[in-house]
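hiii, so i know i said id send this last week but things got crazy w the move. better late than never?? heres the sequnce for the chain we talked about at the cafe, plus the structure i predicted for it. fair warning i was half asleep when i ran it
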Amino acid sequence: MITASRLALSASAALAAALLLVGCTGSSGDQPPTSSASPDDSGNSTDIGDADDIEAAWLDDGRMFALVTWGSSTCVPIIDDISADGQKVTVSLVDAPNADGTEKACTADLAQRASVGGLPEGVDPTKDVEFLVTLGDITDDVDLDGNTALTGIPGESTDYTPSAGWFDDEGIVLLTWGSSSCPPIVENLDVQDAGATVTFTTEDGPCTMDMAPRATLLGFDGDFDDDEDFTLTLVGDNLDGKVNVLEG
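okay and structure toks below
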C-alpha cells in the first residue's frame, strides 16, 4: 500500500504537473514519477502574477497536499525533504533529475507545476497549516486554511480515489491514480457556475501496471468562490465520476 507519508518523505515520492496536460515516466507505484507537461490549449488559464509566489491545496481528504510553483515545464520540482513542527511544515523542493541521476536541461518557458506530497504525521488538516517552502533561491511562506470537513489522518494509507483542491480563486489541483506512463490528458474543460466537466482523452497505447499519483492543474477564467461547493465531473479514460473540490 502507498501511504501519504511515504509519498512525502523521499525525493522520488512526489508528482509535479503543469497546466491541464501532464506526462510522466516511471514504473513503480512505490516510487511515484516526476511529470512534465505541455502548455494549456483549452482556452482556460490562470494569470501569471508573481512568478515567485507559491500556492497550496488540500488533497486526499487531508492526507496529502499540493504546492503550486512557476518555472520550466520540463524541470518540474519534487519534494526532497519534509518535516513538521506542530502545524508548521517545512518543505524543500528540487528539480527532478534524469532517470540516470544526471541534471536535466530545462526549457526557458514559464508554467505552473504542482508538487504533491503526504502531510507528515501529527499535523491536523482541520486546523490552519503554514508551509515554509524552499525552491532554489526562492523561499516562501504558504498558509493553507484548515478544513473541518477533512477526515483523513496524515500517515494513513490513501484510498486511491480522485480528489481535488483549490489553490487560488482560478485554479484547482486534480489528483488521480493510475499508470505512471499513461497520465490523464485533458481534452476539454466545460465550466459551469457550480462546477466543471473535465473530459479526458482515452489512452489506447500500452501502459505500465503500476499505481501512481497523477496531478493535473485546471485553470479557469474569472474568479470563483472557493468557499462555495464546486464539483468536477470527470469523463473518459476510465476516470468517470464526480469529485467535490476541497476548500483551501
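btw Residues 4-246 form one domain. thought thatd interest u
miss u guys!!
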